[in-house]
Design a protein that fits this description.
Largest interface: A-B, 30 and 30 residues
Oligomer: heterodimer
Strand content of chain B: 5-15%
Number of helices of chain A: 11
Distance between the termini of chain B: 32 Å
Distance between the termini of chain A: 53 Å
Order of helices and strands of chain B: EHEHEEHHHHHH
Number of helices of chain B: 8
Helix content of chain A: 40-55%
Order of helices and strands of chain A: HHEHEHEEHHHHHHH
Largest sheet of chain A: 4 strands, mixed
Structural class of chain A: alpha+beta
Helix content of chain B: 55-70%
Strand order of the largest sheet of chain A: 2-1-3-4
Shape of chain B: globular
Number of strands of chain A: 4
Largest sheet of chain B: 4 strands, mixed
Chain lengths: 243, 206
C-alpha cells in the first residue's frame, strides 16, 4: 500500500497510491481514468473579440486549455502558417480548427452546449448565423465605436447600427426569447447562442449605456446567463481588455 | 417517416447545396420553389423573413449553412468525427466570408443592382477568388484524397463544386487557373447519385 505507485495487483485492481493522491490529486485521478485527456490550445490576440465564446465554453465545462494570447507584432510571422490566415485557432491533439463560430460549435458540441438533439442544434446554429448577418450589417460601425478606425460615431450609430439592431433584435426576441419556457434561446439548456447574445449585449452596453433601453428582455437574458456560477467566475477573473 | 420540405426560390444559390445533400442521400424531399411574386405573402411565416428554410415535420429551420450542416450530419456528409465535422464547418464558414467579400460584384453580375460589372470583376471578384481558390487548392493538396476533408464527399465539397460550376456558367473559364479545383468538380459531379440529379434537376440561371 505504501510505495506502490499505483501498480496493478494480481487481481487486476490498481492499488491506491495515497501519496500521489495527496500531492497531486487531480493528476492522479486523471491517470486512473484511462487515456490522456485531450490537449486544447486556443490561439488569439489578447482580446475578447472572436475567442471569448470559446473561452467561456471552456470555463462552463470546467475543462483546462492553453489560452495562448499573441501580440500584434508576433502575428505576421504566424499568419502564413494558419489555414485561412486568421485567428482564432483551436488546436485539439495536434489538429488545427479555424473559424471562431466553428470553434465555438465544436466545443459546444463536445461539452453539451449545442442543443439537445440535431433539430435544436440546427436552431442554435441558425441563430448564430443570424447574429453573424447582424454583425456583418453593422461592421462599419463597430471599429469606429471601439476607436480602432476614425469616423463619425454618432452618424454611423444612427444610420448603420440602429437599423441593423432594430431589424434583427425584435425577430430574436419574438421567435426565440418570448417562445422560450426555459429562459434560454433554444430548448431547455444553455447553448453557445445564449453566450453569443449575452456577450454582445454586455459589450455594447459598456460602450453605449442606453443601447438596450428598448429591449429589456435582452438585459434580463444577459443577467440570467452571466449569473451561471462557472461563467460568473470566469467573467470576474478573465483578463480585462476593452473588447 | 420524417417529412422534409425545402422552401426556397427557383435558384441554385443558397438552396442547391442542400438539394444536393438530399440527392446524395437518396432522400425524398418536397422542393418548394417560390416565385418572386408569391414570396412576399410567405415572408412573415419564416423565422427571419428569409429563405431558404427547411421544414422538418413542421419545425422551421432557417439559415442556409445551418440547414446544410443539419442535413449533412443527418445523412452522413458532414465529416466522420467531431474534429472532421469542425474542419468541414470551417470551410463552410470560409465560404460565407468569401460570398460576403464578392457580393458587391455578384449582385451586379446577375442584374440585381446597377454597376460596372467589368470593374467590379477585376477589383472585387478576382482578388477574392484568388485568395479563396489558393487556400482550397492547398487544402485539397494536403488532404490528398481528392476531397476537402477526410476521404469521402462532404457538404464542403458540394459548396466548392457548385460554386465552380456556377461561376463558370457566368464567366466561362473562371476556374481555369486552378486545375485541382476543376478536377475536384469533375470528381464530385461524377458521383452517381449526383450525376443523375444534375442530369434531371430543373434549370436555374444561378
Amino acid at each position: 500500500m505504501a510505495a506502490d505507485k499505483g501498480s496493478i495487483s494480481n487481481t487486476g485492481e490498481k492499488k491506491f497510491n495515497a501519496s500521489a493522491f495527496l500531492t497531486q490529486p487531480i493528476k492522479y485521478i486523471r491517470s486512473l481514468c484511462g487515456p490522456e485527456m485531450p490537449h486544447y490550445k486556443l490561439t488569439y490576440f489578447g482580446l475578447k473579440g472572436r475567442a471569448e465564446i470559446a473561452r467561456q465554453l471552456f470555463a462552463l465545462a470546467g475543462v483546462e486549455y492553453e489560452d495562448k494570447r499573441i501580440t500584434f507584432e508576433e502575428w505576421p510571422a504566424l499568419k502564413s502558417s494558419t489555414p485561412f490566415g486568421q485567428l482564432p485557432l483551436l488546436e485539439v491533439d495536434g489538429v488545427i480548427i479555424a473559424q471562431s463560430i466553428t470553434i465555438a460549435r465544436f466545443l459546444a458540441r463536445r461539452f453539451g452546449y449545442a442543443g439537445e438533439n440535431d433539430i435544436d442544434a440546427a436552431k442554435v446554429d441558425g441563430l448564430a448565423d443570424t447574429f453573424a448577418d447582424y454583425f456583418t450589417e453593422q461592421k462599419n460601425f463597430f471599429p469606429v465605436l471601439i476607436g480602432r478606425v476614425p469616423g463619425d460615431k454618432d452618424a454611423l450609430y444612427k444610420e448603420v447600427y440602429e437599423p441593423a439592431r432594430d431589424k434583427y433584435i425584435p425577430m430574436i426576441i419574438e421567435h426565440f426569447l418570448k417562445k422560450s419556457t426555459s429562459g434560454f434561446l433554444v430548448g431547455s439548456k444553455l447553448s453557445y447562442a445564449d453566450l453569443l447574445l449575452a456577450e454582445h449585449v454586455s459589450t455594447f452596453q459598456e460602450f453605449l449605456p442606453h443601447n438596450w433601453d428598448k429591449y429589456p428582455e435582452l438585459l434580463a437574458h444577459r443577467d440570467r446567463i452571466q449569473a451561471i456560477p462557472a461563467l460568473k467566475k470566469w467573467l470576474e477573473t478573465r483578463p480585462k481588455t476593452p473588447f | 417517416m420524417v417529412h422534409y420540405k425545402l422552401h426556397y426560390f427557383g435558384l441554385y444559390a443558397r438552396g442547391e447545396p442542400i438539394r444536393q445533400v438530399f440527392a446524395l442521400a437518396g432522400q425524398e424531399f418536397e422542393d418548394t420553389r417560390y416565385s418572386m411574386e408569391e414570396w412576399p405573402q410567405h415572408k412573415a411565416d419564416m423565422p427571419f423573413g428569409q429563405l431558404p428554410v427547411l421544414e422538418v415535420d413542421g419545425e422551421l429551420l432557417p439559415q442556409s449553412m445551418a440547414i446544410l450542416r443539419f442535413v449533412g450530419r443527418r445523412f452522413g456528409y458532414a465529416g466522420k468525427t467531431d474534429v472532421e465535422q469542425a474542419q468541414v464547418d470551417a470551410i463552410a464558414d470560409q465560404f460565407q466570408d468569401y460570398f460576403n467579400e464578392f457580393k458587391a460584384y455578384f449582385v451586379v453580375a446577375v442584374g440585381f443592382a446597377p454597376g460596372d460589372k467589368e470593374q467590379l470583376f477585376n477589383s472585387v471578384m478576382i482578388p477574392a477568388r484568388n485568395k479563396m481558390f489558393q487556400m482550397l487548392s492547398q487544402i485539397l493538396r494536403s488532404n490528398g484524397t481528392g476531397f476537402l476533408v477526410g476521404d469521402s464527399v462532404t457538404y464542403a465539397d458540394l459548396l466548392l463544386s457548385i460554386h465552380v460550376a456556377g461561376m463558370d456558367g457566368l464567366t466561362p473559364g473562371f476556374a481555369n487557373d486552378y486545375p485541382r479545383l476543376l478536377e475536384h468538380r469533375q470528381r464530385v459531379e461524377s458521383i452517381p447519385a449526383l450525376k443523375h440529379y444534375l442530369e434531371t434537376r430543373p434549370f436555374a440561371p444561378f
